[in-house]
């Protein structure tokens, strides 16, 4: 190709673009209506573009023209998102009531089932598949505490609280149907086995605004499932379009109270799950950080939610990730700072949790942080503690070791070790970290200390529970600091 041909080509392209821009209107005047007449207060924009305008009392709107998408989109609470190439937009209402006979759609990829989510949303599906939500009904540790085998007569919810299974299912397997009211999650099949799955979460139309924890899981989340033959999906985008399906936008998808449905629960009278109320009291809430800000942060890698299936290119930082990581070692390391130093012949330790939306640890009530301080002399032999805290009996293998336990301990009748939350509770203590509030401890040792190793461990289940089940991955080392005492 000669330079001349390229120059002519460029010129022609410029002329073409200018012509397209010129014949596009500078503003679009349009109207929004439904079957009965004009609709005021609807929100209108171009698909994939940020600008939005409102319709006036006569349903009329004026929107600046644009050079990108030619689809106009409009929505309003109570209606589905509508789209049109012409400036007359017709809004269709949401169904009046939830359809309890709705058949849940499977998340997994299966091209013979055209509606399965993974067929079109491959990237989101992969993120979700790696999340705890995808395993909430099949997670072996959950199932072991839900209904272990005959070796595990305690810490076995179905044995210890036989009519409580439906309660566990309401958050862990929210679409499990159990005609016999047995709610045995071990027997979950089909979509119910996918736990907290796509279709369930995206049929949530609303959630409680108060009384969190009293109603939870299935009972806290208000679904709006369409009648047979209708397809309707809720989500955070106000401009999603797909022929044959309607979408509805809901602001709750970007708010903590959506997650509160399952992450806050007063179960059998015990405040077992309290992450949402901890968030309400946290500095993160004041800074406008919702659960999604930290747990569904965009990866920046996804630019299209349904590539090749009708999805459009979108700003990657506007698309949330469904991996919802929880306590990974990296997140814990970032969230909790450990400082240790030697002063006045003593070891001073300070722990500080920051940039976290709740207490640390949070979530399942048995989670613990354990500080362990180990001192040795010049020969490398252990030196005993003279003054300072020691770990309690509930620390199991670490009981009586110099250190501090940061945990919620539910104490049942006659119990020396913590009880599961499904047994009657007599007392509880809670020493977990509060965000932005440092916790300090001082340890003095007998004899001449030459080296001190300070460790912070994260423990998922009480030691005796994990040990009785042979779980070897129960403890994670978060921090380790080694201090050498100067020769005296
Ligand atoms: C625990 C409930 C939950 C589950 C399970 C879930 N989603 Fe979402 N989804 C959300 C929330 C909440 C948002 C909004 C997050 C935000 O914008 O911060 C969202 C956003 C989306 C979006 C908008 C684009 C984006 O990424 O922000 C799509 C599309 C979507 N989800 C599809 C899916 C699919 C497909 C699955 C299953 C593979 C799935 N979701 C599973 C709650 C869920
Ligand atoms: C045949 C392809 C296809 C299948 C199957 C499919 N989707 Fe979608 N979905 C789309 C397209 C296309 C969009 C719009 C994309 C855009 O606007 O960029 C979309 C948009 C969405 C949105 C965004 C809605 C909003 O307003 O925020 C959600 C949520 C969603 N889908 C969830 C699901 C779930 C859950 C399933 C399974 C039950 C599913 N999808 C199955 C193609 C599909
Ligand atoms: C329908 C109930 C339900 C909803 C709604 C829900 N979750 Fe969960 N979530 C669960 C269950 C059940 C688990 C535990 C699964 C397991 O460990 O077996 C869980 C686990 C988690 C974890 C722990 C992950 C880990 O690996 O430690 C995080 C983080 C989380 N959810 C965040 C969220 C966020 C953020 C939202 C709101 C956008 C949300 N969840 C909405 C039920 C739900
Ligand atoms: C400012 C960021 C931030 C916000 C906001 C936030 N979290 Fe977290 N979350 C974290 C960090 C960091 C961790 C890991 C440290 C820990 O365990 O606390 C975590 C851990 C978790 C865990 C795992 C707990 C465990 O040990 O199994 C769950 C579940 C969770 N968060 C749910 C939520 C929910 C639900 C909300 C909203 C009510 C929320 N988070 C708000 C940052 C945040
Ligand atoms: C209010 C909703 C809710 C109810 C009811 C509920 N759970 Fe959970 N459960 C959760 C959430 C959310 C998590 C994830 C918290 C985290 O990762 O720290 C979880 C985590 C767990 C875990 C930890 C799994 C792991 O691998 O770390 C076990 C075990 C568990 N639940 C057992 C039960 C049992 C047994 C019942 C019934 C007696 C029950 N849950 C009832 C919401 C609930």
State the separation between the terminal residues, measured CA to CA: 83 Å
Any low-confidence stretches, pLDDT <50, length ≥5? Answer: 18-22
**List of distinct ligands in this structure:** heme C
Helix content range of the residues, please?
10-25%
Q: What's the total number of strands?
A: 23
**What would the principal axes of the Cα set say about the shape?**
globular
Overall average pLDDT: 92
From the 3D structure, determine the CATH topology of the largest domain. Immunoglobulin-like
Strand order, largest beta sheet: 20-19-17-22-23
Describe this structure in words.
18% of the residues lie in helices and 25% in strands. With 488 residues, the chain is an alpha+beta fold. The chain folds into three domains: 3-90, Carboxypeptidase-like, regulatory domain (Immunoglobulin-like), CATH 2.60.40.1120; 117-136 and 196-318, no CATH class; 329-484, Sandwich (Immunoglobulin-like). The strands form seven sheets. The protein has a five-stranded antiparallel β-sheet with strand order 20-19-17-22-23. A hairpin with a 6-residue loop joins strand 6 (72-75) and strand 7. The longest helix is centred in the N-terminal third of the chain and has 21 residues, at 3-23. The model is unreliable at 18-22 (pLDDT under 50). The site of one heme C has 23 residues, from helix 5, helix 7 and helix 10.
């Amino acid at each position: 190709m000669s330079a001349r041909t390229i120059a002519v080509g460029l010129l022609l392209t410029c002329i073409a673009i200018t012509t397209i821009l010129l014949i596009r209107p500078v503003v679009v005047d349009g109207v929004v209506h439904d079957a009965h007449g004009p609709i005021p207060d609807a929100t209108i924009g171009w698909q994939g573009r940020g600008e939005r305008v409102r319709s006036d009392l006569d349903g009329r709107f004026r929107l600046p023209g644009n050079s990108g998408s030619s689809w106009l989109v409009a929505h309003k609470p109570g209606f589905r998102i509508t789209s049109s190439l012409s400036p007359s937009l017709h809004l269709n209402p949401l169904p009046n009531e939830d359809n309890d006979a709705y058949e849940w759609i499977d998340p997994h990829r299966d091209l013979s089932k055209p509606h399965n989510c993974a067929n079109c949303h491959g990237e989101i599906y992969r993120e979700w598949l790696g999340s705890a939500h995808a395993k909430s009904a099949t997670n072996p540790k959950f199932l072991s505490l839900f209904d272990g085998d005959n070796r595990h007569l305690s810490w076995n919810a179905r044995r210890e609280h036989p009519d409580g299974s439906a309660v566990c299912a309401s958050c862990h397997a929210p679409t499990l149907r159990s005609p016999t009211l047995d709610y045995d999650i071990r027997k979950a099949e089909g979509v119910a086995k996918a736990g907290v799955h796509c279709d369930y979460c995206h049929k949530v139309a609303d959630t409680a605004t108060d009384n969190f924890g009293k109603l939870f899981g299935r009972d806290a989340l208000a679904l709006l499932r369409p009648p047979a033959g209708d397809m309707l999906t809720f989500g955070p985008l106000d401009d999603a379009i797909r022929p044959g399906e309607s979408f509805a936008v809901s602001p709750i998808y970007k708010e903590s109270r959506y997650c509160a449905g399952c992450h806050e629960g007063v179960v059998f009278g015990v405040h077992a799950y309290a992450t949402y109320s901890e968030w309400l009291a946290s500095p993160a809430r004041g800074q406008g950080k919702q659960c999604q800000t930290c747990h569904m942060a965009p990866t920046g890698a996804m630019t299209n939610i349904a590539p090749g299936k009708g999805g459009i290119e979108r700003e990657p930082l506007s698309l949330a990730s469904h991996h919802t990581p929880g306590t990974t070692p990296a997140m814990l390391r970032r969230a909790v700072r450990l400082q240790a130093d030697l002063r006045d012949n003593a070891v001073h330790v300070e722990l500080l949790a920051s940039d976290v939306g709740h207490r640390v640890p949070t979530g399942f009530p048995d989670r613990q942080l354990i500080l362990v301080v180990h001192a040795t002399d010049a020969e490398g032999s252990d030196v005993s503690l003279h003054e300072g805290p020691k770990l309690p009996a509930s620390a199991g293998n670490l009981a009586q070791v110099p250190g501090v336990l940061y945990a919620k301990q539910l104490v049942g009748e006659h119990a020396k070790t913590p009880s599961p939350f499904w047994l009657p509770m007599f007392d509880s203590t809670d020493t977990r970290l509060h965000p932005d509030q440092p916790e300090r401890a001082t340890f003095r040792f007998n004899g001449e200390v030459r080296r001190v190793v300070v460790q912070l461990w994260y423990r998922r289940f009480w030691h005796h529970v994990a040990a009785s089940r042979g779980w070897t991955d129960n403890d994670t080392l978060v921090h380790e600091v080694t201090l050498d005492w100067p020769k005296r």
